[in-house]
Amino acid sequence: MMNLTPVTHGRPKQLQSLMCCAAALLLSACQQTQIVFTPTEPPSLASFDTPYPLDNHLPESGIIIPATDPMFSDEVHTELNLPYQLHRLASVQSNHDLNSNSLSSNSLSTHALSRNSLSNRVSLAAVSPQAPFNNPDILQIALQEKARALAIHLADPCLETFSIRVSLHSINLSLTCPDDVNHIYGLLMQFWQPNTFIDATTAPVDIDNIRRQLKLNKHLNAFSGAEIDKLWREKLLGPEHPYNKVLNNDELFDSLNLKQLQQIQQQAASQAQWHLFLPNMQAKNAEFDLQASIKQWPMLTKSLPKSLSKSSPQADKLETTTPKQTKKIFLIDAPGSVQTQVRLGYRIDHAIGHTVDSELGDMSEKSQLNSQEIALSCRSLSALMGRSFSGRLYYDLREKRGLTYGIYGQCANAPLSTSIKFYGSTAIEHTGAFVVGILDHLALVKTQSASQGEINALKTYLMGEDVLSQDNSIQRENQYLQQLATGLTQVDVQQLNAELQALTPKRLQHLANGAFSGEPLIILRGDIDRIIPDLTSKLPEWQLERVKVD
């Protein structure tokens, strides 16, 4: 008998099975995208106590003695009207006993000199302590373009060593090569002539390339997340602060021409106090012709268009409104981002002459910071909390809890503003726990004194950092320019180092209550829709505000 059972039913069953599997996969995929947010934990501190039995057997380390000698020796020539202040790299001879337990940076400086004896480094620095330079971001790109044009036109190998370091208050151009210092000085003069950019007969620059580079940098900053630092500066200082008026001139980025570029350069030159750094007289080819240098000095234009002069020469005396920080978290949306960038900190110079929150009672008067304490608290607290591996935040939030690859502290001590910023990135699921962890540590340092062991470790770090900076002539030069910009003398620096050496747990707690008073500024950049539920749950008393960075 023939089997009449249909055999075509197997295919629909296969299709049905496949559809069920597909649905199951989709459901499982949806389940996988559900974020499980990391819970918060109380702050954890590292122990700096020496374990038994080593506590009685380890040799006592001596006090680290920072350099007391000047980094550079000033050459004064009263018979000449020099347009610059002349500095020679100091020749330091150590007068300390190297067999003692004391470590002095004086003993390191001579080695730094001998290592660089084959080349002469000459630097010409423009410093403006009273007000920031206008459009330093434009000038930096333009001077780099000029160096490229000069290197091609003159075929001078020395120009290949060109380096530039630009800040809001200083522009430092350097060349390092075996040539005679007079020749190197002549090359540096090429960057500050009245016809450096406009009507240039030697090595004209490509203005189109400069405009393209400025626009490219803007797009790269937006892509890399650097826009968070722009918003940080605006929210910390206020839109009318000089530091927010001299940068990121988008309109000028689009319309920049050679005439405007020359005006920017001449304005900076006229505004600046000039400092020329030469190698030690013991170096080869270090003899400098002062008379010839005066003849090569550029004629500076004194009258400048007001359109390019945004900031006042007396910007430090301007009264600007500093934003009052409240319990508000600013959010920059970066859809699809797998991590959250975090900026959190305080402007601490705003506390000068003012009391802290009245709710603190008697603590408000004790927490006022004078100018010396501002510098001391900025340096010590940023290092205590965020000095990489041995900082409190790194130890707890990375080493103990694994919330980040790294979190760091930055002390920004500028002439018109001083602030402490903690920065790092974390995975989306860790966002709330990461922010709460930072806030908990900032609260802890104000209420609980550090151990003496931790204070000793902090001193060793800060003094050791100073010793290392003295061993590098470039770092010494940058440090010296920072001192010039902020108005610090060598006596002030020595006094600050002495206060660091005398730092006690009680003094540090006092500094923390002054610096970390009020509410911190918090800015996050990440996938807002995914992190808001976590922030709302863990920080219910904080208001969330979306912001867009231009």
UniProtKB/TrEMBL annotation:
InterPro entries, alphabetically? Metalloenz_LuxS/M16, Peptidase_M16_C
The record ties this protein, via Pfam families, to:
Peptidase_M16_C (PF05193)
Q: Which domain of life is it from?
A: Bacteria
Domain Peptidase M16 C-terminal span(s) in chain numbering: 312-460
Question: Which stretch is the leader sequence?
Answer: none
Name of the featured protein: Insulinase family protein
